[in-house]
Amino acid sequence: MTGAKSRIIWGIGLLLVGISLLLGLSVSRLTRPVWSVTTFFKEAENDHQAGVVYTVKDEQGRVISQASRRVTVGDEIFTAESRHYRVTGVKGNTAYARYLGMDRDLLAYNEYYSHLGVPAVRMMARSTRPVGIYHTHSDESYVPTDGSESIPFKGGIYQVGEALVNRLKNSGVRVDYDRTPHDPHDDNAYYRSRRTAVKLMQNNPIAIFDVHRDGISDPSYYQRYISNEDVAQTRLVVGRENPRMQANLDFAKRLMSYANSLHKPVVKEIFTAQGNYNQDLMPTALLIEAGTHTNTKGEAERGIALLADAVPVVLGLTGPAPGGAPKPVTDRTAGTPGSWKALGWIIALTLLGGGAFLLISAGSWDRAKSRLSDFFGREFASFFAPRRARKPDLDTAEKATETPAEGHRDPDAGEAARDHLERIRQD
User: Composition bias, kind Basic and acidic residues: at what positions (predicted)?
Assistant: First the structure.
């Protein structure tokens, strides 16, 4: 086998392998979270363990957040007051965060939603797409009401989910509530619940909510009196390890802004954590924490019901849409944060694959550069230089009319050649 044929076969093989990998990744993303480099270095997403508490402090040592999840460098917090923090160090169960200033997006959304009227009556839905709801940790419960922080397969979190479902339905929203349990509460719970999330995706949802409770010990951390009710505040969690992270975060900011304009401050904060949480499936996927295990279940139910009041308007399902309003996050014509970044990755991977194919087919780096230089030289020359019609060589045409050797005359061929020569002269 010649060297040229070998390189062609290698090039075609590499191309087929690349196509196979792309197809495999497209299928696997439905059953496995999006892969990232940090997957090899981070621990599993086993959060919401009752009594496991991480405390986040600012540069002055003030507590700005507590959570029953592993906090890592790079995690970010957006408070109800629009303050933005980023974790810069972790020592044991204490994390230290730097204040980055007031978040511009939240300030803009707060300004807009503060002037937006509250829907006074139940309105007709402008879309029939459902809101999907499920529970990754189906054992999570509330000690004062349920008697335990964990009841496998039938935790009190289901009643909190029903409070969200009922409030959305009363607003005219179609809801797809999947009560599939995903016990035990271990490192693989999010892998098991991904099957449920994918099942919900088959119904073309407009958003998906994974409803949890936190696991910190202090009930007063979430307890508030809001809109004439004793409630447990909610927290919105966005996973940093997925390509839709910026879109998920934008949705969370809008939801927190409008919910707090209706019932301030029913959303305590937005927490971006090192995880996926199956949010790579769609840009409007969020994890909601309704209070903690030491709150009563009634407090959590009332808190998440107040949050539900904001969902239809933010998603563009129901509610007012006056002139000058920002487009709903689900509007296909609205800009989606992160889209250009994703496009950049696609272009970069395409160029990388093309470069590898060129290098293999050329056989050496110098030959690859030469071919690339010749290609662009021809293309740019033909693009910038005027294209001239190439005339056949007159001498060559005249030679065609010469009389062939005796015994080999073809009258038709000679006549055709003379006609061709005459046309050239006329040109």
Answer: 391-427
User: CA triplet 277, 279, 103: central angle to 5 degrees?
Assistant: 100
Whole-number Å distance between alpha carbons of 388 and 390: 6
> What does the block give as tokens for 91?
């020592």
- Specify the 3-state DSSP secondary structure of 313: helix
Structure confidence by residue, pLDDT tens digits, 281-300: 999 999 999 999 999 999 99
- Strand ranges across the sheet with 54-57: 63-67, 54-57, 94-102, 83-91, 76-79, 267-273, 234-239, 285-292, 207-214, 131-134, 175-177
Inform me whether the pLDDT recorded for 346 exceeds 70: no
- Listed by start position, the domains of the chain span 1-30+344-388, 103-337, 394-426
- Residue 177 vs residues 20, 87, 233: alpha-carbon distances, Å: 35, 35, 22
CB contact at 8 A, 329 and 314? yes
Among 3.10.150.10, 3.40.630.10, 2.60.40.10, 3.40.630.40, name the CATH number for the domain at 103-337. Answer: 3.40.630.40
- The per-residue DSSP string of 319-357 comes to S---TTPPPPTT-TTS--TTHHHHHHHHHHHHHHHHHHH
Confirm if 356 and 14 have CB atoms less than 8 A apart: yes
By three-state DSSP, how is residue 137 classified?
coil
Note the pLDDT of residue 334: 44
Report the distance separating Cα 165 and Cα 159, nearest Å: 10
Sequence letter at residue 268: K
* Confidence (pTM): 0.72
Q: Which residue has the tokens 């202090």?
A: 218
Q: What are phi and psi of 343, to 5 degrees?
A: -65, -40
Environment class of 271 (CB within 10 Å of its CB; exposed 0-12, middle 13-18, buried 19+): buried
User: What is the enclosing helix (H) or strand (E) of 422?
Assistant: helix 411-426
User: DSSP states of 200-227 as a string?
Assistant: HHTT--SEEEEEEEE--S-GGGTEEEET
**HSE on the CB side for 300, CA within 13 Å?**
30
How far apart are alpha carbons 66 and 219 in whole angstroms? 12
- For residue range 368-420, what is the model confidence (pLDDT) as tens digits? 677 667 665 655 555 455 555 444 444 544 444 454 555 555 555 566 656 65
**3-state DSSP assignment of residue 63:** strand
